[in-house]
Amino acid sequence: MKKVYLILFILILSSAAYSIENGGLVQYDLFGWTVYNRGASTLSIVNDGKDIIVSGNATAEGAGYAFANKNLGLSGKSKFVLEVAGIDKNSKFDSYKLLKVEINENPLLTVTDEMRNKSDDKYINARNGKAEFDISSYKAVNKVNFVFYNCSMNKVKISCYVK
What we know:
Elements: H1 2-21, E1 26-28, E2 34-37, E3 44-48, E4 51-58, E5 63-68, E6 79-85, E7 92-93, E8 97-103, E9 106-107, E10 123-125, E11 129-134, E12 143-148, E13 151-162
Antiparallel strand pairs: 1-13, 2-5, 3-4, 4-13, 5-12, 6-11, 6-13, 7-13, 8-9, 8-10, 8-12
């Protein structure tokens, strides 16, 4: 029994250390949202634990990944961070736009300068890295939407963290 308590104690400590190391960020589960394709878009999403792997094409009509629910667990949070990996030379993006994040139908602007798209600041750049968003002004978060537009990619991994 003492071993069980010791293991639980170690797990709690390692979880707390991870949270402190990442500025208090906790991974947000992207599992089970709805994929939508407009026009000839062929976007597909595969869940990889709490992350998603995005492949396919989004046309000018757009495609996306959305979740609407009265309890998304984001109300009262201050930060929303996307971590992107897997963009390579075979990926193609219109004006280097990867995706737009919307909360309650409103586009979020990233506070991470190198991830803000220069031609349309509602989109994050199509590059590997972290994009941070300030969501402290949202008292209730009922819908989150990732909007993809005029792009082609294969196995781009997106992870999400909140604080």
